[in-house]
Amino acid sequence: MADKARPTSRDVAREAGVSQATVSLVCGGKWHGRVSERIATAVREAADALGYRPNLAARNLRTGRTKTVMLIVPALTNQYYARLYTGAARVAAQHGFGVVLYPSPADGGPARNPFGSAPASLDGVLASSMAADVLADFDDGGRPLVMLDSDPANSRAATTVNLDVADGMRQVAEHLLALGHRRIAHLAAGVESWTFAVRSRALAAALEGTGAELRTVPAALTMDAGRHAAETVLRAPGRRPTALLCDFDVLAVGALKAARRLGLRVPADLSITGFDDLTLASAVEPELTTVRLPAEEAGRRGMTALVSVLADERPARPADVPVSLVVRGSTAPPA
C-alpha cells in the first residue's frame, strides 16, 4: 500500500482557511505584527493535525539562513550555564531557531575552534565571556555576535547582556557591614574576566569610608582552591577576618570546609557568603547566604537580543538583569 503523500503548506492553508503566505509567515516565526494570535494558533493546529513540517532545506536555500545559532559557554558542569542554556533555548524555539551548544573544555585545555568545520551553518552566536579561549579564535565571518557577562565597550559584539553583579556585590557587602563586620576577606576568582573585575571594584567601593579592612585572596574556581585560600587567610598573622566573602558558591563551600578543619563555628565565629545561588548553596549546613543570579532570565534576554539582531534590528544594550541577596544561616554578627 502506498504511503500517504506528505502534507504541504497548501494543505495547511486549506485546512486553516488562510493563504499559503500566511502559513509561511507562521511556520517561519515571522507572523508577529502581521498575523493575529488567533490565526497563528489556527495555522499551528492545522499543521499539527496534518503532520506538516516545513521543508527547511528549501527555505534555507531561498533565504540564505539556516535558523541555527550557537551558544558558547564554559562546560555545563556549572549549573549556572545549564540554566542559562534552558532560557536561551526556550526563546530560540519560539522563533524557530535551533541551538548548537558548544561548551569549552572543562579542564582548561586548548579549545577546538568550533567555527572551522561548518561556518556557513550558523546564523549567529551567543557567547559567555567566560569561554575566552574559544572567543580568542572567533572568526565571525559576518555572523552577528551577542555577548553575555561582557564589557559593553566590546566592539566585536552587536550588543551585550549582563547581570548586575556590581549591585549583587554591593548588596552582600552592605549585609555584612550591617551585621557589624569590619574585617572582611574576599576570596576572589583567580580568573581574568570582566565580570569578576566588576565584582572586585564594586566591593572596594562599597567598603570605602566604612573603616572596614579588606584582604583579597585569589583562588581558582574549585572547592579545594576555596578551602586552601580560606585556610591561608584564616591562619595568617594578625587579626583574623570575621567574614569571608566569596566570588562563587563553590569557593564558599570550600571555605566552610576550611572553617570546620580549623575548629571555627559558622556563623558564630566566622560568616561566609557565596555568589550564584547554586543548588549546592542550600545543600550544605549551614545554608549559604549568597547572591542569586537569574541564569534562565539572562539566557532568555541574550537569545532575544540575538534574534532581534538577526531580524536586522539594532537593539540598544539591554538593561542589566537584576540580582538579589538571599540571606541564610551562614552569616551572623561577629562574636
UniProtKB/TrEMBL annotation:
Pfam families listed in its UniProt record: LacI (PF00356), Peripla_BP_3 (PF13377)
Lineage top rank: taxon: Bacteria
Name of the protein described by the UniProt record: LacI family transcriptional regulator
Keywords annotated in UniProt: DNA-binding, Transcription, Transcription regulation
SMART domains hit by this protein: HTH_LACI
Gene Ontology MF term list: DNA-binding transcription factor activity; transcription cis-regulatory region binding
HTH lacI-type domain mapped to chain residues: 7-63
UniProt source species: Streptomyces noursei (Streptomyces albulus)
